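Comment thread on ticket #2218

A.B. wrote:
> Attaching the input chain for the structure job we discussed in standup.
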Amino acid sequence: MVGSRSASPRNKTPDISRSQSASSRARLLARKFKLTHYRIPSVVFTIPPLSAVGLSERGAREQGLKFRVKKEMTSTWHSSRRVAEAYSGYKVLVEEDTERILGAF
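C.D. wrote:
> Ran it. Output below, let me know if you need it in another format.
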């Protein structure tokens, strides 16, 4: 299934008025602060769901950051088994010195 609606009575994604409001706030904040858009998360509403936020491994390397990669398959986790996901997992990039999360997938 692709899209933002489901059989449940609640909409799974914000409506356009919320999106416009957030966009307006972002423009106002941009006047005060430098916004870094690489931290904006993205999600693909598919089965399986795909999402990412922050830097990719390539982006972190290009910036010369020292980081480690933590990754694990999660197919055996209850959250994956309950929706019959045969393959699922995560990857997190963690900066070496500060333990700051650089990216998550």
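A.B. wrote:
> Thanks. Noting for the ticket: The longest helix spans residues 16-32.
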